[in-house]
Give the backbone structure.
Amino acid sequence: MTKPPNQDIHLIRIFHYLMGGLTGLASLIPIIHIGIGFFIRKAEAPTDNPQEAIIFDMVSNMFIVIGATVVIVGLATSICIVLAGRFLAQHRHYHFCLVIACLQCLNMPLGTALGIYTIITLNKPEVKEMFGVT
C-alpha cells in the first residue's frame, strides 16, 4: 500500500521548515567574527609603525566583511528553504522547490537526505499533476 502524495508533501514541508530554522540558526554563528572584527578595530595597533596599523585595520575589516557575508548568505538560504516548504504546501512554484531541493543536497548530511527525498517526491507523476506541471 502506497502513501498518497499529499502525505509525502506534508512531511517534506515540515522538514523544510525545520531545516530552514536550523540553517538560520547556524548562519548566525559568524556574528562572533563580526564582533571580533569590531573589537580589533577598537583596539590600538601594537606599534607606532603605520604599515602595521594598516594591516591591523585590514584584518579587522576582513573579519567584519566575511562574517557579515556569511550571515547574509546563510539567512537568505534559510528564507529560501522555508519558502520552498510553504510553496510545497500550496502546490505552487514547482521549479523553485526543485531547485532548492537540488541546492539542499550540498548541505550534508541532513540537507542531502531532505533534498533527495524532495527530488524523488517531486518527480512522481501524481505530484507533478498536483502542481500542474506536465
